Amino acid sequence: MPVSLLWCCFLFASFHYRMAFLWIASLVLCSLWGARGQTERCSGYEAINVLKADSYLIADLVLIGNCSSHSSDIENLRLLVEYQTDSRLHVLITDADSQVFQIQEHVLPRPRNENASSSSSRLQFSFTQSPFAFSVTRASTGETLFDTADTPLIFETQYIRLRTRLPSNPNIYGLGEHSDDFRLPTWNYTRTLWNTESPMIPNGLNLYGSHPVYFDHRGESGTHGVFLRSSNGMDVKLGTSDQGQQFLEYNVIGGVFDFYFLAGPTPTDVSKQYAEVVGLPAFVPYWVLGFHQCKYGYKSIDEVGQVVDTYAAAGIPLETMWGDIDYMSDHQDFTTDGSRYPLEKVRQLVQSLHDDGQHYVQILDPGIHRAGGYPTYTRGAEQNVFLKAADGSFYRGFQWPGEVVWPDWLHPNTQEWWTDEIRRFYDPNSGVNVDGLWVDMNEASNMCESTSCFASTSARTCVANKGIAVRKRYGDPVPFLGVPERDLFNPLYRIQNRWGDISSKTLWTNITNADGTHQYDTHNFYGTMMAGATRNALLSRNSAVRPFVLTRSTFAGVGRVAAHWFGDNASRWDHYRTTIRQMLSFTALHAVPFVGSDVCGFNENATEKMCARWALLGAFQPFYRNHADITANRQEFYLWPLVTQAAKKAIDTRYKLLDYMYTSLWKASADGTPNASPLWFFYPSDSNTFGIQNQWMLGDALLVSPVVDDDSQSVSFYLPDDIWYDFWTFEQKAGGGQTHRLDGVQWDEIPVHIRGGTILAMRTESANTTAQLREKNFRIIVAPGKDGTAKGELYLDDGASLDVGGNKSEIGFLWDGQSFAANGTFGFETDVKVERVVVLGGEGGEVVTHEGPWGLGGEFGFHL
């Protein structure tokens, strides 16, 4: 801080000498003022020793003048630019000494570099030598997509900054997880990425996941994506400079600038290109598309059984029952409560569910009770798998069981220990024969918020030793561990974490992982590593079937190993609306296709009309689970007449569409095509669609437009200029690029339209379980577009096998206006048939039905 500024601060602080808190506040403000002033005077770097080849560029970057705005400058950097494919450009700026932390390759594997030619690339890289700045342009048009010329690069030990210009009034999406508008605000807006416990999913604050990728949609000019491969805490700011220039700025408390630029040019292209970078999503088993029920607060296994029986008596299909932490003894993983959830009775219920074609899932938390005589802790301690404090003892905190320790997912023994615990407790012959696992509290959430805390409920005290970070405990020194001598608790640049300090409500950020890295750098992927370890354990338990893992905490690439639900929302109309934009962020932008909210809300008390609407909305989203907190009233679908009526219709319709949804999930796992998308993905030139966040395309055929206003029976929805058909009546409607209003929408109704030009495969009837559903025949709905043609597809397999081999059918449907044809591959053997093909949009709106049956063992069709 300059001497003149220090003198100013001293005078201001001295004026308030009688008020200690103002003294402190003044010094903090002056410090921030000084940091800002120093940032504005930073000169950046100069590029030297530039070497350029056809598919890459490398250079050294040397500091021009001292900056040290928030920490020590790193004076020598390296620049690597790779034209990896024709549509992907990689730009990496790192320290020359390879000390700064980079995400471990096994945590988030890098995509393969295909060494594309720069001359054929859709993206072009250029740079200014001094001060160093770079830009990325679209080769076909010359349009600038990313340009850092306005502000110098800052690269310090605990603060790195880069700013890019944006066009005026940009359409920016992504940077999840958040509950804000789907199209992000672009004036004085900050997206903080730092995973945290976040009840009530507040707007404007960081939530459970971090996904540092954004889509920039520019209408007819195309869409591109930018992914920063960084797990460090950051603020991404969108705003306007004093000169009126729109910008996006990264403010990161560590790590490197590791960018992947994705050319698009269509929105779906960007989604697929991003999935290639972070990994294609795992394909889920068929049964998880059924309806799920859970509640924290079921007092006994008998009560759980009563819920199952009541759903059956009410005629509401229930696919899967879930067990929250109620089942545990003293909230300890891998235990059951001997009196309320005796193991034998739990096994009996699970067997009963399986006999009826239903399923069962249980929860696990990462906090392992530090208690003598608790075998899971004892075995983990023997294998040294828990995170350690600076003094070498196990780092301790507080979760549901009381005093706990946390697994170190980077320890070489942790996977083996975790797999062993899961195989022991979930042994099909002697334990709880679950069908999937749910990992919660894995940000990680720590109820111990200070160096010591006391919980009267368990009469235990937890003590956390801050101490000094240990550099490395295991193996030989390796690069990218993080620069030494950093302040791992209180970096001078403070990201806008919901809870203040970055260690608040989580693991201390100076904790050293087994590989020598620190929680300061790896915090954001702790939960994703737990989810991955759980998936691996389930595969060890049964390698033949697709494992199902649901996780609360997420990071880029989590779709490879787990599904996600949106955490502890509330029974509020605004959270009902929020679930739509949260879904779209994950399915369309973050390569996580199997997601959903707690239907009817987790916290607070649901109301009948809201829950009825939510039962309908949830049926048209990938993951469909009713779940409530222990403090909330019961909200099972059978408790209210309106909700029962709505749920029956919702599940009946969902199950008829289940193979259509399953096909879209298969496509997502095969090439990253989103299974649910915003309207602008399909109408990228229609500016009216850019801000729509209460409608969505489910697959490529269905537009869902729920009632969104509180306690309303009216809805306004937008139909782009295309041919549309009412899903319920088959009535043809010209969208006209206009907003339409529908009044009198009953509590068991939800507006849905079929997009012209698509073909929809549906089961002829619903069923009580997905196993029974798979025995039902199909009908095919043909919805011709403006040119009179339509196409669609259907994917079939056994619904469970991890490797189906050739036992699958990939069937394409085509309508050319006069004839219908089904062709493709037909490797899946089934007795199920297509009963009829229904062609919409005939003369005068006529609906023509062509009766079958046709088998699904080979090609078939007909001609008018």
Describe this structure in words.
The chain has 864 residues and is an alpha+beta fold. It is 20% helix and 27% strand. It contains 14 helices and 48 strands. Strands 30-29-27-24-20-19-18-32-31 form a 9-stranded parallel beta sheet. β22 (397-399) and β23 form a beta hairpin. α1 (3-15) packs antiparallel against α2 (20-40), α7 crosses α9 (526-541) and α11 packs parallel to α12 (641-656). The N and C termini lie far apart (83 Å). Residues 1-34 and 451-477 have low confidence and may be disordered. Residues 281-663 form the Glycoside hydrolase family 31 TIM barrel domain. This is alpha-glucosidase.
Shape: globular
Largest sheet entry: 9 strands, parallel
Low-confidence stretches: 1-34, 451-477
The strand order across the widest sheet is 30-29-27-24-20-19-18-32-31
Q: Give the helix level as a range of percent.
A: 10-25%
What is the CA–CA distance across the termini? 83 Å
Number of strands: 48
Tally the helices: what do you get?
Answer: 14
What structural category arises from helix and sheet content? alpha+beta
The share of residues in extended strands comes to: 25-35%
Write down the overall mean pLDDT. 93
Radius of gyration: 28 Å
